[in-house]
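Hey all, sorry for the wall of text incoming. These are the three entities for the joint prediction.
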Amino acid sequence: MAHFTKATSVKDWLNQRLAIEKVEKVMASEYWIPKNINFLWAMGMVLAITFGLLLVSGIFLLMYYQPNVETAFDSVNYTIMQEVGYGWLWRHVHAVAASVVFLIIYIHMLTGIYYGSYKKGREMIWISGMLLFVAFSAEAFSGYMLPWGQMSYWAGMVITNLFSAGSLELNGVVEWIRGDYVPGQAFLTRFFMLHVLLVPLAILALIGVHFAALRIPHVNNQDGEDIDFDVEAKKYLAGDTKGSKVIRFANDFMSKDMFVVSIFLVFFFYLVFWNYGFAMDPVNFDPADGLKTPAHIYPEWYFLWSYEILRPFSKDVGLIAFAFAQVIFVLLPFLDRSPNVKTANKRGLFGIWFWLLVIDMIVLTAMGKLPPQGIYSTIGFVAAIGFIGLWVILPFITAIEKKV
Amino acid sequence: MEKTSRRGFMGKAFGAVAAVGGVASLVAMKQTWDPLPSVKAAGFTEVDLSTVEANCLVVEKWRGKPIFILKKTAEMVAKQDEAQTARDVIVDGTHYMIAIGLCTHLGCIPAYADKKEIFQCACHGGEFDSSGLDIKAPPPSPLVIPPFNVKGQTVMLGEEGPEYKKMKEAGILA
Amino acid sequence: MFKELSILAVVVAFSLLTYWLVEPFAHSQMHAHIETKHFKYTDLPAITKTGNAVAGKELVMGAGACTGCHSIETAGMPAMMPAVDAAASYGVNPPDLSTAGALYDANFLVAMIKNPAHATNLDHKYPADGSKMHPMVAFYGAGGDMDQEVADMVAYLQSIAPKAEEVTPKVAFENACGRCHSMRYKNWTPIGEKGKFKYKKDELRFDASVLDYQDYVVKYMGKLPPDLSMYYRSRGEHFLETFIEDPQSHLKGTAMPRVGVTAESAEKVVEYLRDAADPKHAEREETGKNVMIYMIFFVLFAFLWKKEIWKKLH
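and here's what came out:
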């Protein structure tokens, strides 16, 4: 039985019961972050804030959205966009944040690859991060179904068809996922459930794991330097804040994060009010029609690179390539055979590999949207082969990498 | 020592009982995701062939899917090879193509170009001939022939008639 | 600081490149770019004669001429039958001509009176061999100089029409588009505005009439012309303008007629479409400005806070 004394203050009362001072130390003031970092280290905070924006705007959208094939389209485009006070604001914020969150995720991911932040005890940070990417993808896809426009419907049709596993013709699986022969009421309601409950729960849990995975190996720094956090923390606490290689999470790191967040928000609100077309595809302002395929079907921009890996091949090969693209990033810590934790530019061949990967993914993204004809087909095919090739050679080029 | 091993055994036994319950609940969860009986039952469409014009595509709706019905002209039939004719539904000497109008690649609806007498898919560029055979990748197989039953000048979609069963045995449904 | 800015430059450059590729570039490759001809209808012959409105009145009102099918409410000629019955006879309810002189281009009206299939750019649907006839019967002349007679008729229609600037966007839309298209966000059906009903069965009767009407339109057009409520956002302003000017330019072979509106009327139609699809655009602009002003303070204070904290760290 714990020993309680008469509290001398509210803080003391809480301290005896919740140990808030200790929690504050562990979570913020004595959670040590390296000082040698740049603004790319703030992307985690930018993501957290964007997730918050999605959550808040989502709550308000939920108050008027109707998950019914007859009324879903109008509940979004008329009720929310035209009748509800500031309903349009929530929708624009939700749509733009859902798209921009992927831009930040990609920057966050590529930062991790560039600085080697997935190695030497940081493997779980990377793996939990990639699981978050999968969960966010599921969240984005299920959310895209809800306005029940033409792109919602046809994206739902094309993506659920992937589960027939090509020549295996598992149509029963596809119909089971949809709850119907084609996307219909059952489909819409179950994706609504996934979008507002099951996937967000998974995301929250994964965010917890992702943060927890950072505690033991600590955050990486710009030079991949192996910092002795205990020694540096003592230095800081002794008053040598300028000499110490570490800073407090709050408010030291936090104040820099929030400055980066503030710049991000300027960009974000510019998109929300004036340049939202990239996140709210015009085609989706046509109501779903199962008998009329849109002239061009393409996913949102953040899925284009993996969609393009599916497209140029025959059905079964395409599906295998697509599956490869979905899981290969998770395996990065094990495919990189080099012990070096350094920026890519100081790692010889790996540096070239990194920039080729970035360029290849941008090419795939562009070709994924363009109509699959003529030269675009060919470029897409080459880029898809290139993507697979890059991952196949990764273990070899990193195995021969010199220790630096 | 004896105590811990006993606890270990009972712990495992309890775990096993809990797992049985968990797995049993999966059965319920799986069935909850199944298509409803009403959805499954709403699946028979009758099509009147007597009003169909030659080389003019008719699109019917069956189980939420578009069904292509194409009446062929005598010239079209004359040009056909055996594989194409085998897929035709012949009613009173007139040849019809009956197929689910969804591209076998990823389920888009191809459009019919009546001059070229082929189906072209806008999504990924696949093409099918007037019998529904795939003539340009990416579609890996011909358009699927839905279950049908010919009754005089009408066709009942969803029922397996003798002609359909014959095609099924010959393995040319898709 | 320099290092941070260089990193930012790299991140921004790659992001902008990706954006340019998937948005402006991809869309330029997916959709043909159609230039507007500013609603000049240069393929149609220009009016050569000066019309006489008084003579035109005789012709328009004459037996077997316009008022045999069209109503002219402002000239005391009400519709002869309900819209549904008119659609049963003609395929679609013929437009009331009260505002025609203001809404439609004069050269177009002349061409329309002489050869409706050609004026509406539907020669492919109503071929010259006469195998299929446009529901509007061409005017074959009243015995005099046909060019003069047609010019007179157009002059009369212009004389009874309100001034172009007095035509509201709503009227422009309803007359030019609203007899085939519905617009549910404005309660518009092709047989008129759907009002409030006290009894459910009256509402159902109205809805049934709309369905009857649409059945006739489907027979006439081949498919049901779409509801236009969200077209401003699904198609965009440029597409709408060029499509209204000549539907064939975007959709070769479509059954939709060229409606022959003047540039000013087209602007009004587009304004009405915008009002239906995006009525909050003004509020969005206003809120956007305020949020940006607030963001200046947000950035400033975030910066000052960071500076204060990091004084002891550098």
